[in-house]
Design a protein that fits this description.
single chain, mainly alpha, globular
Length: 217
Amino acid sequence: MKESPGVVDLLGVLAYAELSAYARMTEDAATLAPSLADRAALSELAVAEYAHFRLLRDRLAELGADPEEAMAPFVAALDAWHAQTRPADWLQALVKTYVGDGIALDFYREAARHLEPSIVKLVDEVLVDEARSQFAVERVRAGIEADPTAGGRLALWARRLVGEALSQGQQVATARPELALLLVESARAAGGETPDISRLFATLTEAHNKRMAALGI
């Protein structure tokens, strides 16, 4: 039996997000990494993103959905997000990986919160970012320590990333009603009978603030 459209949409957008992350991180490793060690480390993280993509692709197939068709509605929005937030240097790339991607993926984590347990487990598995977070935090902090003026520039960059990420998430949800319904259900769980979208965004903002604090910006 096929899964509900909302679940297929959620796994589809996450699958394309992970595939895009793999491609982007591979490119950043090749073109922006300042050392071979950094290139190797980011490439290793990219491989992990591709493994996550494969998990999502395989689960979509198990649910009776065509993975390519499930991802297709989200290609334009996610490609536009990456085009609008192309990093100019290594530190910007790391902040995008940690802050920009982080809040975008939090958006979809919230959508999955009240789904069937096996789906929640899969989403949590593919969105785990401990290794990526540690790598980005260490490198960005070291970069700011070496050049204290970089902090203000990166703070402005992070603010732009968050605005673009939330806008992209809202556009995707608006275009895909079944996916939007998952967010409404999550908000309803937070606010009782009435969906509390403001509380949902407060949760996203709180997670973002913690990331900013970890980076020291």
